[in-house]
User: Fold this.
Amino acid sequence: MRAQLEAVIDELRQMRREGVDSLYLTPETLEQLRAQVSKAAAAHPQSPTEIKLPPLRTASAQTSAADLKLELPSTAEAVKESRPKPAAQSGRKLPEPPTVKLPRGSKQKRWDVLREKVYEDPVCQEQAGNPERVVFGVGSLDAEIFFCGEAPGADEEVQREPFVGAAGQLLTKIIGAMGLSREQVYIGNIMNWRPDPGNPMRKGNRPPTPEEMGYCLPYLRAQLDIVQPKVIVALGGTAINGLIGGEKKISVMRVRGHWHDFDGVPLMPTFHPSYLLRNSTKESKRQLWEDMLQVMERVELPISEKQRGYFQK
Ligand code: URA
Assistant:
C-alpha cells in the first residue's frame, strides 16, 4: 500500500514539474485516498512521513496542486529508509573498491552482467538503504558522448535512472539542443547510490566522500570500457574532481571549457545542470552551451547557424 501511495505521490510531483497546476478529483476518490493514507499511517506509526490530503471539497471543485505543494511530502521524505551513516562519519570504513571482471561477449551482454553486479553489490545495497534504490547508467551502448554526473537524487533512486528529476529534465533539454536524444547518449553517475543527507527535511544530497566515490569508480570505468565513448562530459564539481581531480580541489570555473583526459578519453568539464537551475543567467547558459559546442565539434556533429547563435550576446 505504501508503495502505491508513493507511486501516486511521484506521479503528482512529476505532473507538477511538467506544469500541471490543478487536478479534478471526485469526493469519492479523495475519500478513498484519505482512507488509504490513514491505513498507511497506522501501519507505520514510527514513520517520520506524514501524508496529508487537502480538505474535501464539492464534486465540482478543483484541487490545486499548489494546495498539495505544502502537504505532500517530498519524494525524499516519502521514501525515507534507514541508511547507514557515511563511513566517514561513523568511523566505519567501506571495503576495498570492487574488482570488475566481465565475461567476453557483446556490449549488451557485458553491460547486463555489469548492471546485475552493481544491483547485487552488498555495499551499494546497504549504502542505498534498500536494494531497490541502487542506480546504474542508461543510454546507448554505442554512444559517442558519455555524460557523467555526481549521484542519484531522490527522484533518480525511485525511478532507478540517472537524471530524471529537475536537473535531469534540463540535461535532456541540453541534449536535445545538441540535436540528440537521451537514447543516443549515455548517462551515468560517479555514484551508484544516493548519499543521503541524513536529515529528512533536506531535499538535496550531501556530497559523496572520496571513499564513496572511490568505491563506485570501478563501476563507472567498466561502463566507459563497454561504451567506448569519444568524449566524456563531466557535469559539475563532484564529477570533475572525482574523475580528474587530485589532492587539491579543482574549481569548475577554472577548468570548464578546457579539454582534459580520463583514462585516454577526452573529457570536457562543465557546469552541473542543477547549478544552471539555481544560477539561470544568460552568461552561465552561454558558457555551458559553448562547452557543448566544443563537444559537438569533437564528435563531428553537424552544427547549424542557429545552434551556434544560442545564447550569443
Ligand atoms: N544529479 C546528478 O548528478 N545525477 C543524477 O542522476 C541526478 C542529479
User: Anything to note?
Assistant: The beta strands are 22-23, 63-64, 138-139, 145-149, 186-189, 231-235, 260-262, 265-270. Residues 13-22, 46-79 have pLDDT under 50 and may be disordered.
